[in-house]
Specification:
HotDog_dom_sf, Thiol Ester Dehydrase, Chain A
């Protein structure tokens, strides 16, 4: 592995504007967006060590998205992401989400995201290796 940042964790709190309008549960699209952001931050940090100077990446695919339980207003959400595969230009990231409450932690969601590295707005090889 020739880069320092293979994993990344972040948290956020579910606020009312993130929920379905009829129920105080987080909207699936909001959760997907937060998962994509966590994965993107992981990739961005990994690219600090790109020997080819790639400094950006864009999401090109998300797959195997699973919402296992709901999260309500006030829940603390922990997102864990890990780079599990690198290609010449692509970087694949697995994200898992957990709902933290006073009575424990429960797995909320998971999914996989694929990014391609860019430099100066064009797709380029990133030079990273696992």
């Amino acid at each position: 592995m020739n880069f320092r940042y293979r994993s990344f964790e972040t948290t956020f709190t579910v606020f009312p504007h993130m929920t379905n309008y009829m129920y105080p549960m987080v909207f699936g699209g909001e959760m997907l967006s937060q998962m994509d952001i966590a994965a993107a931050m992981n990739v961005r940090r990994a690219l600090y060590d790109s020997p080819t100077g790639c400094d950006n990446a864009v999401t090109v695919h998300c797959t195997d998205i699973n919402f296992l339980v709901g999260a309500q207003v006030g829940d603390l959400i922990l997102l864990k992401s890990e780079i599990y595969e690198v290609g010449t230009k692509s970087i694949s990231v697995r994200v898992e989400g957990y709902r933290e409450r006073a009575d424990g932690v429960e797995k909320l969601c998971d999914g996989r995201f694929i990014f391609v590295a860019q430099k100066d707005g064009a797709t380029k090889p990133h030079g990273l290796e696992l």
